[in-house]
User: Fold these one by one.
Assistant:
Number 1:
Amino acid sequence: MARERRGIDMALGTPGYPETAVDIIEAANDAIRTGKNQYVFPPGDLRLREHIATTLPVPTDPETELTVTVGATEALFLALHALIDPGDEVVLLDPGYEQFKSAITFAGGVPRYVPLYAPDWRFDPAELASAFNSRTRVVLLNSPGNPTGRVLTRQELDLIAESAERWDATVICDEVYSGFLFDGRGQTSIAEVPGLAERSVLVGSFSKSHAISGWRLGFLRADATRTTAMRRVQELTTNGAPGPLQAAVGLAAGSADLRTASEEMGRRRDFALEIFTGMGMKISPPEGGCFLLADIGPLTGGRADGRAFTLELLDATGVVVVPAAPSFADPDRGAQYVRIAFNRPFELLHEVERRVRGFRPSGQ
């Protein structure tokens, strides 16, 4: 239906902004032409690992504490399979990135959800503490969060550290959106927090920040012991990410203007908020990332059916958003929400504004 309606995709996080840096593309072409087309050392191109180390908030040994992966997806896979056994429990925040649940269960783990509460998507400290027990092995975080846009505060991370220390749990944090922070906000990485730093596994990616999602390049940062365990899993799966693409990013990643990209992404967030709150949706402004988590209840008269709404919006306007219910442990709790990606060119956002102007769901 989306193709038939010449739909505008505002659902997936595939970058429409920023643009891929020309220097990175040229470096990839050069790497291929000059013969860098064979296997590389499984943990990754050393020059790329050295570059990644310079971008992290804490000193990191690129030889023993960094591993290049096939996107953040493989990074998460390696971390969970190295750190949990069947039946072990993993604490995670709800709502969250829907792939987390699948990755945990695929590794044999059991999710233990800590609810986040609208409108600002924060957890209750007592509910966080009660989620831990003797079977807890891992805490899985995402900051800035998908789909909420929340950036975990130092106070929240300190609370997580208290429970992680008490129950000797490793803390994995997907920080792939850390390059996009808004309103002058900074981010505290788990690698910086006492109580978390020594038990932390940081997941990163170049997909969104450098607009190379098709290259599938991510990374893991952890202490040498955990890194060794995760690399053993990698040797039995992909055995390494694409060599010429790693070489290209290692040579040219610094050419991407990440500060400007973050500022420009903030402008896109503001415009997307204007468009969709103008329709009648209720949205807490995201603190980082590239998604809006929009409550359609005010627009639909309280009818909680995100899927029906997305289909009606697509049919009437050709604009594609996605139901957010799969991001919630209990889909009924997320039935009144949709997720909207705003990492798009301004000209496309203006077209979205034109198309949705005056749209009202049936019955309104």
Note: The domain at 8-18+258-356 is CATH 3.90.1150.10 (Aspartate Aminotransferase, domain 1).
Number 2:
Amino acid sequence: MQEASTIYIRSDLKEQLTNLKTHPRESYSAVIERLLLCAIDPDPLTSEEIAGIEESLADIKAGRVHTEEEIMKEFGVE
């Protein structure tokens, strides 16, 4: 059995956790675990992906963009 801990949470947060229960008898531990699974990205971006996004944002800010029509014309897509 896993060790349990007592934590302090404000009453307004406890009310929010209560509202997130999927059923009345669901434990707060289960609610918190579900929230953590949503909050933690199992496949975070790599440094190369982040660099690519930053480069793309710089291109957009500098006006180095093409319309969809321009791209379609360039590649012969109708």
Note: The chain has two domains: 1-40, 44-78.
Number 3:
Amino acid sequence: MTAYFELLSDVVRLDRGALQIIVCDHANLLPDGWFQDAVIGNWRPDAEGNRTALIPLDWLD
């Protein structure tokens, strides 16, 4: 998994950040700083049950 995410990171870096990659995964699994810095959001309920979404829920109205 680390090699896979390193490849994605390298591709984004080569494109000077102009490319955005959205990865749907079940775990925030790498503790490495470069990985954590790349995580913009986790779209699942937090400890209090508050839910965020990739597409804001009010857009669906």
Note: The first helix runs from residue 2 to 14.
Number 4:
Amino acid sequence: MTMERPLWPVPKAVGLGWTTREGGHSEAPFNNNNQAHHVGDAPAAVEANRADLLAGMAGCERICWLSQVHGTQVVAAETATVGAEADAATVSQPGIAAAVMTADCLPVFFWQDDGAQVAIAHAGWRGLAAGILAETLQQFSDPNRVRCGLGPAIGPGAFEVGMDVIDAFSNWPGASRCFKPAGSPGKWLADLPQLAEFWLQEAGVPAVYRTKVCTFTDAEHYYSYRRDGTTGRMVNVIWRRIDADLPGGRCG
């Protein structure tokens, strides 16, 4: 099982990262490390992949798995039922991971500067436009103490959209800089991570960290629903470690 951990300056009490499609138990077309039950993969393979993931998450005992619906519901990972319909989760109890699955949509990580609370949101364009970031940020008492990270998603050179998407972001901060004409009439290339970053900055988040990964173009390492249709899912996780004291120092 392969899990990537970005070099973002998070408190030492916080763990975060995302899986790739490498190193798991799933067979084609879900090869190899699919984390989702809803895509048609063999249940035993998914459970084996999830078990390997949890075993590699230091200071974590349980993952809060959601049923994502491209909405704006946020749940508390400590009390949410397995498969709760939501697109974001927040957690302050050590040892429990908030998680969202993706295969082109944008995972947005949230953590308080002292590591006392963390959250994660699944932001496809519909959820992003509807306000999933606002709903998640509202779970924190002070946005100025929140830091965010943007995980792997479809990149601005691959995400072709129509006017309906542009219209959905007509009042969005910096929206005019996030869309460029595509090669075909009535089509545009959208920069989903940039849309999220502009909104978070406008909302008062003082630092937003990025990854340049494009799930659509990197078929070796990442699933992409838009590229492949029938495919697996990565999972993006964030948790407070039970093996680290608060307040913590910072790690790169």
Note: The domain at 3-154+207-242 is CATH 3.60.140.10 (CNF1/YfiH-like putative cysteine hydrolases).
